[in-house]
Amino acid sequence: MKKITAIILSMVVIIAVAAFPARAAEEIDKNSATNYPYIFVHGMGGWGTADSYYSLSPYWGGGLMPGSDDDMVRILNEQGIEAYAPSVGPLSSAWDRACELYAQLAGTVVDYGEAHSKAHGHDRYGFSYEGKAIMGEPWDLKEKINLVGHSFGGATVRLLASLLAYGDADEIAATGDETSPLFTGGHDCVHSCITLSAPHNGSQVANILVDPQVTMLLISAVLNMIGMVFGNDFLVFSLQLGQHGLTPEQDEFRAFINPCAIWNFYASNDNCGYDMTLRGAAELNEKIKLAPNTYYYSYTTANTQEVLGYQLPDKGLSPIFYISSMMLAITKGFTVDGIKMDGDWLVNDGIVPLASAIYPSCDAETALNYEQSIANGDKIEPGRWYYFEPMVGMDHFDFCGTKDYPSTFVDFYFGMVNTANSR
Predict the structure, then answer these.
(1) Nearest to 229 by CA among 251, 247, 244
(2) Residue 76: CB partners within 8 Å, gap ≥ 6?
(3) Where are the domains of the chain?
(4) DSSP code of 163?
(5) Secondary structure letter of residue 73 according to DSSP
């Protein structure tokens, strides 16, 4: 009788466990060395909490599926980890996005910089976030923060950390004492800079799509048309291209047809498309320096398999990445912007090659494997990259919380926070 009772109780427990969603095995360390706010920055075509679509499908946890109640920003806040997800230009350049991110943190007007704006032919000032600082109180550049960037958000957070630490000589020369604190340098306020499948060294996909001149010119014209018909808000995000004259400025309802703006947006290369080409990323890397007191962590995924010498989409790859993954595959043996396409330039997560996601090539000499460093008992130091082993079988959007990896998704972010907070 006791055996029967034990069997029944065991079955009840198994059924009860199966009936509830999987809980994260990882837990937030409540006794960590630090606990600074986390700023999550979306990638190209992404959205933040200021965009209406976020409530329907959170970028950081919705798995791109409407109706999801998973939101990593909310989950972290519930765990006592201050977290925010600002909205920056989904198609803007890394420079413009970094300026927009800073303005939202500081609660000020977006200042793209006098020198940069003149060089790229657009307005110096953008949206105003006065009285609307995303952390509540305007950031005084004294309290440290953690920056987390997915995809092109990686370039955004890297550039912001670099500007805050070193400033920009051209901007200081252009505006002197009136230069924004963003460009003056000398600020030790970024504790960690964390990138998730970021195209540090670009992606061949961007070269294939952007190099044909007619493509970018057509995109520019379409963006201006969208601004004329829909204003700033289109589909899931706010385009925020008012500085270019393609979409309305903050207080305007609709944009006007602007042939000069269309041509300039295409010709100036001040957009995410160019920044993600291999040469655009290389130019960006020349501007970005490692902040001496900031910890840098890089997380990557890979979802291809070798077939007849080619890296082709694996069975777990999301269908939305089949075409882009094949684009990467067909570059095998070619030279793109002076780089031979082989090895890890072909292994990819659907859109970003592993050779690009692991760390910026300009910082390769000092980059270290994090797991190996921990195993060796080495001290984790700021001012250099620590990369983690690729998460094989996961694709580019799995960091956004797909339905296939609900437990892994939460576990990953809890582990990421514990790593950053441990020092």
Answers:
(1) 247
(2) 28, 38, 82, 83, 413, 417
(3) 31-202+276-305+349-421
(4) H
(5) H
Residue listed under structure tokens 């329907």 = 56
The structure tokens listed for 124 are 């110096």
For residue 18, count other CB atoms closer than 10 A to its CB.
8
| Token code pair at residue 412 | 């990953």
What backbone torsions phi and psi does residue 102 show, to the nearest 5 degrees? Answer: -60, -45
Alpha carbons 113 and 136: distance in angstroms, whole number: 25
Taking only Cα atoms into account, the Rg of the chain, rounded to an integer number of angstroms, comes to 22
Please give the pLDDT value at position 22. Answer: 39
Amino acid code (one letter) for 4: I
Structure tokens at 44: 């190209």
Name the CATH topology of 31-202+276-305+349-421. Answer: Rossmann fold (3.40.50)
Cβ pair 272, 44 in contact under 8 A: yes
**CB neighbours (10 Å) of residue 110?**
27
* pLDDT the model gives residue 14: 31
Provide the CA 414 distance to its chain's centre, in angstroms: 18
In the sheet that 38-41 helps form, which strands lie side by side, from edge to edge? 83-84, 38-41, 145-150, 190-196, 295-299, 385-387, 368-369
Identify residue 373 by its one-letter amino acid code.
S
Sequence-distant (≥ 6) Cβ neighbours of residue 357 within 8 angstroms: 195, 197, 198, 199, 200, 298, 300, 301, 349
pLDDT attached to residue 19: 31
Positions in the chain whose pLDDT score sits under 70: 1-25, 63-69, 235-236, 402-407
Q: What's residue 3's pLDDT?
A: 40
Tokens of 169: 């000589």
Q: What's the rounded Cα separation, in Å, for the pair 97 and 406?
A: 30
Q: Which two tokens stand for residue 15?
A: 């059924």
pTM: 0.91
Distance between first and last Cα of the chain: 55
Taking alpha carbons only, the member of 343, 309, 307, 348 closest to residue 327 is 348
Reading phi first (left if > 0) and then psi (alpha if -120 to 50, else beta), residue 80 is in left
Q: Which residue has the tokens 């609307």?
A: 132
The rounded Cα 183 to chain-centroid distance in angstroms is 21
Burial status of residue 251 (CB atoms within 10 A of its CB: 0-12, 13-18, 19 or more): exposed
- The pLDDT tens digits for 370-385 are 999 999 999 999 999 9
